[in-house]
Amino acid sequence: MDGQANFRDLGGYETEDGRSLKWGEVYRSGRLAKLSDEDIARLEHLGIRTVVTLLTADDKEVYGRNRLPLGTQEISLPIDSDTATALANRANAALKSGDFSKIPVELNLEIHRILVHDGKQQYGELLRLIADPANRPLVFHCSGGVHRTGTGAAILLSALGVPWATVREDYLLSNEYRHDEVKMRLVQLQQMAAKKQGIPSEQVDMANMEAFMIQNGRYIDSSYDEMLAAFGSLDDYLHNGLGLSRQAIGQLQDGLLSRSQLGDS
Question: Checking phi first, is residue 243 left (phi over 0); if not, alpha (psi -120 to 50) or beta?
């Protein structure tokens, strides 16, 4: 996409029982407010029926409204967490001051732990929407397609039986797709901090900011660890945390998985 580098198909991932996720059914993305006319034509070509946004009303004020093909169903499932907002405010204050050392080193780890709890209702509804074939092909997104979307993708792939090592790899793909965007943003922040501190840009300590902007596998692992610590197992998180019935999970798996190597569907 011209206007969103982190738009990608979740198809192709293999499950532990030998099935694979069908292509062209579910996509993950960052915000869709800056899509070009060509991007919108691409969405039409993909046959996108539903776009689920995890953005809050405040997010939409900042980033703008999504640009989508006419007739696309747009569903809002805002994940708004007071705890996450408090962390974000600390990070924003550090950004404004130009002192990135004040950004918590464990910020991303904490965000993913929080989302396991504060996003339960939204993630449960997201998976129910995906399970209904009438809603697919479906795209779900947040702002950068990293934290809220990354946690949602991890939950979805895990519910389908994709090994955690693969889930982790999918999470880290955001670094590849967002590389140019992140690199440019880090340069801008470094120059801004240098100006505020009155020092050469090469003397700005960027370690904490780089840790926030560049994803590490430990970050999404904290979501998995929190699911196990709080609920005992992934299955218990899906059933007791997200409120998904076995029938709903079965519908999700039957609709999205195929045994392509055997020629079955």
Answer: left
**pLDDT cut 70: percent of the chain above it:** 98
Q: What is the rounded distance in angstroms from the CA atom of residue 21 to the CA atom of residue 139?
A: 15
Query: Which of 52-66, 87-101, 194-208, 227-241 is predicted with the least confidence, judged by mean pLDDT?
Result: 87-101
Percent of the chain with pLDDT over 90: 83
Mean pLDDT, the chain, whole residue set? 93
How far is Cα 129 from Cα 50, in angstroms, rounded to an integer?
9
C-alpha span between 140 and 157 (Å, rounded): 14
When pLDDT is averaged across residues 25-48 and rounded to a whole number, the result is 98
C-alpha dihedral sign at 77, 86, 113, 169: positive
- DSSP string over 213-244: HS--HHHHHHHHHHHHHHHSSHHHIIIIIS--
Note if the bond before 137 is cis, omega within 30 degrees: yes
Cα 32 to Cα 256: distance, rounded to the nearest angstrom: 24
DSSP state letter for 14: B
- Cα distance between the two ends of the chain: 30
* Structure confidence at residue 260 (pLDDT): 58
